[in-house]
Amino acid sequence: MAWLMTFIHLFCLFIVRMSALNFFPEKFELAEKHTSVTLTCRTDKDKITWRREDANSIVSILQSDFEILSGRDLTVIDLQEDLTGNYTCWSDTGLEDYTYLLLDKSKEATAFKINCTAETFSCTQNIKCAWTSDEFTAFRLRNTRDDGDWVSQSVDGEFFLPHSTNSYSEESERLLITGEAVSTCCYMKTEYSFYLRDIVKPADPSISICTIKNEGRDEQIVELEVKPPSTWPQPHSFFPLKHEIEYEIRHNGELKTKEWEEGSKVKVQGSITKLRVRCRDLLLLSQWSEWSKWKNVN
Ligand SMILES: *[C@@H]1O[C@H](CO)[C@@H](O)[C@H](O)[C@H]1NC(C)=O
Ligand SMILES: *[C@@H]1O[C@H](CO)[C@@H](O)[C@H](O)[C@H]1NC(C)=O
C-alpha cells in the first residue's frame, strides 16, 4: 500500500507544480487574510452553482460557515490560503462566469524592491528594471506616471519600461513604477518612485588609442579618445560625461586610476600594459557605467 501512497503523493506534487500560476489571471479579486469577500456571477440565469479550482482539485461549493451562497453572490468568510483559487459559476447550460480569488499580501510580503536603471535621460531608451521573489511566480510592472501598459519580464528576467521623460528640460514629476506579483494563492503590489536622473547609469563607453609615443625605456605617453555610449543623448556638449581610466603599470602590475572632466581625450604617462574606461554624467553625478573591456597597449 505504501508504494501506492507514494505514487499518489508524487502525482499530486506533479500537478501542483504543473499548475503554479505563471501568468496573471484575466479576472481576479483580492482580499486580505481573515476578511470576507463577495464574488458575483455575471449572468442572467437564476439557478447557478459554484466551483473552486485550486492547484490540485476541483471542489463544488456547498453552503458552509466559510462560503455563503445567496442568489448570484458567493461570500467567502475569513479568507485564508485554502480558499483561494479559480471560482467558476455554472448554470444548467454550462460555464457562466469565473474569477480568480487571491489573498492580498501587499502589507505582509517580505520586502523585495524594484531596482531600475536607465542608460540615458532620453525617452528613446526604455528604463530597465529588475524585480523578483521566491514567494511569487508571475510578475509585471507598469509606468504609472505615464499611464503605461503592463510589461512582463523578458527572457533574461528584466523589465523594459517605456517612459516619456523629456531629456532637455528639468524633470518635475517623479516616475512611479507599480509592480504586481501573483502565485497560486497570493498577490502583492508595490510601488517605486524616483526621478529618472537618480537612476541614470550610462552604458559603457568605447575607447580608441590614438597615439603612443615612446620616450625612453620606461617612459611612454598614451593618448586615447573615449567615445560616449551610443545610447547617450546628443548633443554631447549638452550632456557632458566625466571619465575615469584604470591602467596597469608594466613593471609591477600595479593598477592606477585617473579621473578627468574636460573633453573625451586624455593622456597617460608611464609604461602601461592595458587600460579601461568608465563614465558617468558630469552634472548630475550619475552612477558609473560598467568598465569598458580591457584594451591592450603594445
Ligand atoms: C479559470 O477558469 C476559467 C473557466 O474554466 C478559465 O477560462 C480560466 O482560464 C481559469 N483561470 C485560471 C487562471 O486558471
Ligand atoms: C540593482 O541592480 C544592479 C544591476 O542590475 C545591481 O548591481 C545592484 O546591486 C542592484 N541593487 C539592489 C539594491 O538590488
Automatic annotation (TrEMBL):
Signal sequence region: 1-20
Organism: Sinocyclocheilus grahami (Dianchi golden-line fish)
InterPro entries: FN3_sf (IPR036116), Ig-like_dom_sf (IPR036179), Ig-like_fold (IPR013783), IL-12 (IPR050676)
Keyword annotations from UniProtKB, A to Z: Disulfide bond, Glycoprotein, Immunoglobulin domain, Signal
Name of the gene this protein is made from: LOC107601021
Protein name (record): Interleukin-12 subunit beta-like
